[in-house]
Amino acid sequence: MSRSLASLGFAAGLLVSTGAWAVELSISCSALGKEYEICKQGVDAWAQRTGNTVKIVSTPNSATERLALFQQLLAAGAGDIDVFQIDVVSTGTLAQHLLDLSSKAQGSIGDHLPAMAETSRVGGKLVAVPWFADAGLLYYRQDLLDKYKRPVPQTWADLTETARLIQEGERKEGRGDFWGYVWQGRAYEGLATNALEWVASYNGGTIVDDKGEVTIENPKAAEALKLAAGWVGTITPEGVLNYTEEESRGVFQAGNAVFMRNWPYAWALAQGADSTIKGKVGIAPLPKGGPDGHHAGTLGGQLLAVSKYSKNADAATDLVMYLTGEDEQKRRAVQGSFNPTIVSLYSDSDIAKANPFIGDLVDVFTNAVARPATVTGQNYNKVSTEFFNAVHQVLSKRAEAAQALNRLDRDLKRIKRNGWE
Amino acid sequence: MSGAIAGTGVPAPSLVRARRSSLTRSRIRAAWLFIAPTLVILTLIAGWPLARTIWFSFTDASLNSLDDYDFIGFENYLANYDGEWLGLLTEPDWWHSVWNTVWFTAISVSIETVLGIVVALILNAAFPGRGLMRAVILIPWAIPTVVSARMWNWMLHDQFGVINDMLLRLGLIAAPITWTANPDTALWTVVMVDVWKTTPFMALLILAALQMLPGDIYEAARVDGVHPVRVFFRVTLPLIKPALLVAVIFRALDSLRVFDLIYVLTANSRDTASMSVYARQQLVDFQEVGLGSAASTLIFLIIALLIVITLALGRVRLGEDPR
Predict the structure, then answer these.
(1) Which of A71, A241, A276 to mutate: most B Cβ within 10 Å?
(2) What residue stretch is flagged as signal peptide (chain B) (predicted)?
(3) Which residues pair with B86 in a beta bridge?
(4) Which partner from A87, B179, B193, B292 sits 20 to 30 angstroms from A314, CA to CA?
């Protein structure tokens, strides 16, 4: 009580001294794990500094549900939420309701990871600012690789071979439920990110290219999907076809798999005090498609954007600039291990001390593959749904890779019909 | 979004106009007066959304800008673009979801009916602890679907699930079954969970009917020495048939709209998508309010049609008091 009084006094003092109008803003930040607490600290710091008040609005945890809620709010032109935390693939969908931040953020956008900056731009306008980054990573069991004297796999063929070898070895020792590789195969956005990694690592493109041409029907993409379909039932449990991030982490963290594909959040949990594999885990970029392929992790992450219907757009923009600024991103990296989007922070010694693995991630983020969300705009959800459904058909052996891609190509062109918009 | 069934027939005055006395007229006026609030409420909560959904199905509205749309006639249903037929009626995914829903309804309602009768017959017999059993059996029905679906999801998990563990220990299966992931078992799994959840509802409705049956018929049957199985098929079943049909129609209505169970167990997967899952995906995920409304309108028409057929086949009228 006394603390809030003190801050009130402080705020009032500022108000008098600057003569500014104090406003009340609303921000939506997601509340997964530590996220709410860390967000609140950052927001409160800004509120103290400027004398404004900020309300945090709780939103659903699932990114898909959150997007649906934002769409309904924004479509109604409601100004209830001033600052939105949006997913990197939502900018295209929401762009028409977001404020162009070019004038304020143009100067600093160059400091951010280029791939993240790219997802903030729609049709030449800067409608959001990157807040934190995510990318698909390969998690491996160092103890098991040592035991079988295998290196961290560099290509998918290496991974398949190593996984098979270790799985056979462990099963011979009586661990019947041991598996080689777990990932996300449920028919949802997560499968689209997994499959994009396979296809991109084989140089098979990104479904739709920068110019909006549908490129998915190619022999390299077919090769990638064939490889993944070969895993199911051999080194990967068939149940992966209904796994999301948490189910695959469940298998890996119970010590029942040697490799896992997941986002960086799984690191802190795998190394947690109650984890059975604490101290035995390593992370690496996802393998290459072949000798001439490349490491490709799908880019994820969150951006902050200002609603066009905000009544206090200037203050809201200021809040976004503060939260995405260097100091705040550093604090979030140290306290919450959120991966910064500002490139220079990856060589920051305080961050390196708090989270040793963050430094290794800069290459992963720099080479990360963006989903074709900006170029397909409002249609991204349809594109990704067609894509993951086609992939799911191949994985569950209901269709041949080439045949599924042929159908996907036709369906995507049908969605495109008169251009993406 | 869900096709609301508004058409509860208002009993219209059936008297011949010429013979209306002033008393009859005032009674008709009073009847309309009493019905009016119901009519107003039905129009507001069922009629208006339904009309709006049907209207939207003829437009190209998008969730992003609900006020800015054009009337496009039947294009959401069927349209010809450069010699290629497009629209909902040509969409294989839509027809697949229709088939899924009808299949799901037929199988699950049949199983629930049979099991419901069995359970009701047991609960109708006198045994110690009957009151407690009647309450306990309602538990699956009382748990919110989303909660029970999540619960089943973990129980059916291929690696950690208790179901696979039990079957493995009993030696019934050699390897864990991937219940919700394998397209061959996914829809059956949904049916199984639905049966678990809604059999109590069926049992309760049938039990109510059983308790209204006159005891003297059974007395007579017993005196005549009729076999109990014969008594069931010749006496019990015909007597509870009206109530049974109403229960079946209620369940069928409900399961034709199935959404939460399938969405939680298998998400948007095409192998198990029901009509409602399809409509929601169009409306919310793809922002196609026009196309989604067209799907919702078709759901409404399909359900209405199926109910009319069921009623005609069962030769019962909802207006008749089943009890």
Answers:
(1) A241
(2) none
(3) B79
(4) A87
